[in-house]
Design goal:
The protein is about 35% helix and about 20% strand. The protein has eight helices and seven strands, in the order βαβββαββαβααααα. The chain has a seven-stranded mixed β-sheet, with helices on both faces.
Length: about 220
């Protein structure tokens, strides 16, 4: 059994924020793979489903980002899980928009949602880091992540969420490489195959016609 946590803030005001990409990822997985309805539990919205024999609990903490660890810790204790059974989907300002990386353990890099989870369950959980880009200045980060995605982000964002859904079964099976490949296929579709170059057969050289002139005539023509 695994616990997949999507980070975000509750309410329509925040629904389209860059900070809420974790919620978006879980919503897409639940919708595409026939997970159960969302219901309130563990100070969160929770949905359950399966990939093969692996049971997956999706969790969207409703505590606001800075207190996400309260919900995650409560769910972990209820299901008797260990930190490595937890995967957190979150926005990552240190990755370019549309880039995605998986990571096992590590620091929180100043992300308030991860910081809270660290405080409640420690650092040894897995992460799916979804790039939203950096505003360029450290002091601009809070405003950046709490703003909606721009219109021009819509295409890559949809492709990323589709790729996450495509590869969710691989992630559940513990194959992060294949999961990331599924996302990459959506983000960078194969280029159209080049049309094969058909070589033309060389044109046949016509055979010379036989020379019907007499030897004397050929000699005369030579000196004309």
């Amino acid at each position: 059994m695994q616990l997949w946590v999507g980070l975000g803030n509750p309410g329509e005001k925040y629904a389209g924020n860059r900070h809420n990409i974790g919620f978006m990822a879980l919503d897409r997985i639940a919708s595409d793979h026939g997970f159960g309805p969302w219901r309130a539990k563990f100070q969160a919205e929770m949905s359950e489903g399966r990939f093969g024999s692996e049971k997956i609990v999706l969790l969207k903490p409703m505590t606001f980002m800075n207190l996400s660890g309260q919900s995650v810790g409560e769910a972990m204790r209820f299901f008797k899980l260990e930190p490595p059974d937890v995967t957190v989907f979150h926005d990552e300002i240190d990755l370019a928009p549309g880039k995605l990386r998986c990571k096992a353990g590590g620091g929180h890099a100043g992300h308030n949602g991860l910081r809270s989870i660290h405080d409640h369950i420690g650092p040894h959980y897995d992460r799916v880091r979804m790039g939203v880009g950096h505003p360029g200045r450290k002091e601009a980060v809070p405003g950046w992540v709490l703003k909606d995605f721009a219109k021009h982000d819509a295409e890559w964002l949809d492709d990323m969420l589709r790729g996450i859904s495509d590869g969710a079964g691989e992630l559940a099976a513990g194959d992060a490489g294949r999961f990331m490949n599924a996302v990459a296929r959506r983000m960078q579709p194969a280029k159209a195959e080049k049309k094969p170059v058909v070589e033309k057969a060389p044109e046949a050289t016509p055979e010379p016609e036989p020379d019907a002139r007499s030897p004397l005539q050929r000699l005369v023509d030579k000196f004309r």
